[in-house]
Design brief:
This is Alpha-L-fucosidase 2. This protein has about 700 residues and is an alpha+beta fold. About 30% of the residues lie in helices and about 25% in strands. The chain folds into 3 domains: about 1-45 and about 95-270, putative glycoside hydrolase family protein from bacillus halodurans (Beta-galactosidase, Chain A, domain 5, Distorted Sandwich), CATH 2.70.98.50; about 50-80 and about 365-375 and about 385-580, Glycosyltransferase (Alpha/alpha barrel); about 270-360 and about 600-710, no CATH class.
Length: about 700
């Protein structure tokens, strides 16, 4: 399978990307001027600073009283004035590699492609009957990006140069380029206007080194002050590494290094095969154009599925950081939403396909990161709320600050309405859900005992202290539903309320999973009795006048009836706690339809979430409708997800949705082809995962199951 095009990239969202989990490159593919945007996952602005608000806890009781007295706006203002901390830092682009060719003639037979079966990208064309080819791959075993430039005659003439938006020094010599750089001390999020002080270089930012090495060249090489010039060559091989030292045997030639890379990549990628129809031999952008015009192309959905798996393999491997909002591919100093880890849906969605799409090798960066967040979040829980355990809010960065954000760098008061997204201490409860799910799919008691049990215990401790008794039941307050607002009786709006549906679902899930763990491990934990009592008396889900599941504790009028988040449906998906409750499932369905009728599902990741919910509801045609929408309305020509702008979460949520249309293992029941749409009338899939360490192959024709095998 491959993506291919008959022209070079015209914008960043056209580029073809490669990555090894830590290093990434965005390839423009210009025939006369090649441009590679380079990334290394650990390059972030800032330095570690404790951003917890040491005075926050003293205002918690006052905020609660205001909310319980239904003075929601006053409570929100008090939070924003006294209970938030500074914003996160930002992910940095390493720099740009330019390769300028001395092509004076017309370019013919141009093609740019990404072979996702072998994780290699290429550019090929002709000039004066000479055949030129470039090949690129990012090797996980070697810890480097390799570039091979070739011509069937000794007509390779080009110059190499490097530039960066960050402070850097580049030294050119006869072996390549050596780069030393320094990240800024601080970078504001792109949505903050801070009077020209958005980027502060300072002297406390992290330093980094990178190297582009010429490992093979059969032409002449000359070094200038700002470039390296190569002429009269037929083959040149380059290797790029950054931050971490490359780990390849320099006695191996390019083809040997490439085969090692392909073998490593295919050990993960080849575990799953999806066939939905014969491939159409057209460039990918033209296939998308035809799909948007209403033409059928089932094979494009299969390509999209495998491309999503490719992206996660390329951006999340053991030893790396987890995939962020853009995976590892970013080109702006002030990237959208700081290109961080947004934890109220986005980073969790990045890892939705790990289990069912057979990508377990990509999960360890997420697990490691959450464990670091949990350790930092203990301090936030104590300082902000006088609670045990750990908490996390809606944003995370390289420095693992866990405080609620809203205050600009050096400021004292949060921005108005910043509580809408930041006053959400339930991020930790969501982040830990993947740990127990991983155990369900890979039943390893040692993993459960050493990593899942202690982590969920800390999450449960926080929730025990965060909930409190009011009018005979346990509630959460202040409580928000991520990024959504409601209209108040006083004519204003607010985000803070009591016991949102998402809070209740997360609490039930964490407590329920912790109890299951204790049963499996035969642990008589001293908090079990308290957990059982909280579950018995926890506030209940509410159903509104239309039969819909209420997002808040009352039937408020929504400020955005078509809001992008569907957080109140968490209990249906990704959680399984609604699985046996037909009343709550139906209320969730009504809520979803209501939101969509008002314009919901309009961002890429939101559309992906909708696909999964419809799949779980067994609504195959609506699941397919929004899958098609994801490709035709919310995808760029390089198949990146369009929020817009580019966010990678929609890619990962989308492929999880495809898998959930084909098989589901939820609440001790395996459903085969539970949401197979009419359009996918014939096909097969091999290697999808179900729980208890099992794998399933499925084949079907004329919309009916032919055969399946579980092994």
């Amino acid at each position: 399978m491959r993506l291919y095009y008959k022209r070079s990239a015209q914008k960043w969202e056209d580029t073809l990307v490669i990555g090894n989990g830590s290093l990434g490159a965005m390839i423009w593919g210009g025939a006369k001027k090649e441009h590679l945007g380079l990334n290394e996952e650990s390059l972030w602005s800032g330095y570690y600073r404790d951003k917890n608000n040491t005075g926050a806890a003293q205002y918690l009781e006052k905020v609660r009283q205001l909310i319980l007295n239904e003075d929601y706006q006053a409570a929100e203002k008090l939070i924003e004035k006294n209970m938030l901390g500074e914003y996160n830092e930002s992910y940095m682009p390493l720099g740009d590699l330019f390769i300028n060719f001395e092509h004076s003639r017309k370019i013919k037979n141009y093609e740019r492609s990404l072979d996702i079966d072998s994780s290699t990208a290429s550019v090929s064309y002709q000039v004066d009957e000479n055949n030129y080819r470039r090949e690129y791959f990012a090797s996980y075993p070697a810890g480097a990006i390799f570039i091979k430039l070739s011509c069937d005659q000794s007509e390779l003439n080009f110059s190499l140069s490097f530039d960066s938006q960050m402070v850097y020094n580049c030294r050119y010599n006869n072996t390549g380029l050596k780069i030393n750089g320094k990240c800024p001390e601080h970078v504001d999020p792109s949505y903050i206007d801070s009077d020209g002080n958005s980027i502060i270089q300072g002297d406390k930012g992290m330093e980094y080194q990178a190297e582009l090495k010429v490992i093979s060249c059969n032409g002449s090489l000359e070094v200038g002050a700002n470039s390296m010039d190569i002429s009269g060559a037929s083959k040149v091989v380059l290797a790029f590494s950054a931050v971490k030292e490359a780990q390849y045997d320099q006695n191996l030639d390019y083809e040997q290094l490439k085969q090692i890379h392909i073998k490593d990549y295919k050990s993960i990628y080849d575990k799953v095969e999806l066939y939905l129809g014969e491939d159409i031999k057209l460039p990918t952008d033209l296939r998308l154009k035809k799909l948007r015009a209403g033409k059928k192309d089932n094979a494009l959905y299969a390509l999209y599925f495998q491309y999503g798996r490719y992206l996660l393999i390329s951006s999340s491997r053991e030893g790396s950081l987890p995939a962020n909002l853009q995976g590892i591919w970013s080109w702006e100093l002030r990237a959208p939403w700081s290109c961080n880890w947004t934890t109220n849906i986005n980073v969790e969605m990045n890892y939705w396909p790990v289990q069912n799409c057979n990508l377990e090798e990509c999960l360890e960066p997420y697990l490691n990161f959450v464990e670091k967040i949990a350790e930092a979040g203990k301090k936030t829980a104590q300082i902000h709320y006088n609670c045990r355990g750990f908490t996390h809010h809606h944003n995370a960065d390289y420095w693992c600050n866990t405080n609620p954000v809203g205050i600009v760098y050096g400021g004292e008061k949060a921005r108005e309405q910043s509580a809408t997204w930041s006053m959400w201490p339930m991020g930790g409860a969501w982040l830990v859900s993947e740990f127990f799910k991983h155990y369900e799919y890979n039943p390893d008691r040692e993993f459960l005992r050493k990593r899942v049990y202690p982590l969920l215990r800390e999450a449960a401790l926080f929730l025990l202290d965060w909930t409190f008794e009011y009018d005979g039941e346990y509630i959460t307050c202040p409580s928000t539903s991520p990024e959504n607002r409601f209209k108040t009786k006083k004519g204003g709006s607010s985000a803070v309320a009591v016991s949102t549906a998402m809070d209740l679902a997360l609490i039930r899930e964490v407590f329920g999973n912790f109890k299951k763990i204790c049963v499996i491990l035969e642990i008589e934990d001293d908090i079990l009795a308290e957990i059982t009592e909280r579950l018995d008396r926890l506030s209940t889900f509410k159903i509104g006048s239309k039969g819909q599941l209420l997002e808040w504790h009352q039937e408020f009028e929504e400020c955005e009836p078509g809001h992008r988040h569907i957080s109140h449906l968490y209990g249906l998906f990704p959680s399984e706690i609604f699985a046996e409750d037909n009343i709550l499932k139906e209320a969730s369905r009504i809520s979803l339809l209501e939101r969509l009728e008002n314009g919901g599902g309009h961002t890429g990741w939101s559309c992906a979430w909708v696909i999964n919910v419809f799949a779980v509801l067994g609504d195959s045609e609506n699941a397919f409708k929004y899958l098609k929408t994801l490709l035709t309305r919310s995808s760029y020509d390089n198949l990146w997800d369009a929020h817009p702008p580019f966010q990678i979460d929609g890619n990962f949520g989308g492929i999880a949705g495809i898998a959930n249309m084909l098989v589901q293992d939820r609440n001790d029941e395996v459903k085969i082809l539970p949401a197979l749409p009419e359009e996918f009338e014939n096909g097969h899939v091999k290697g999808l995962r179900i729980k208890k360490g099992k794998t399933i192959d499925i084949s079907w024709s004329n919309g009916e199951l032919d055969d399946y095998q579980i092994y």
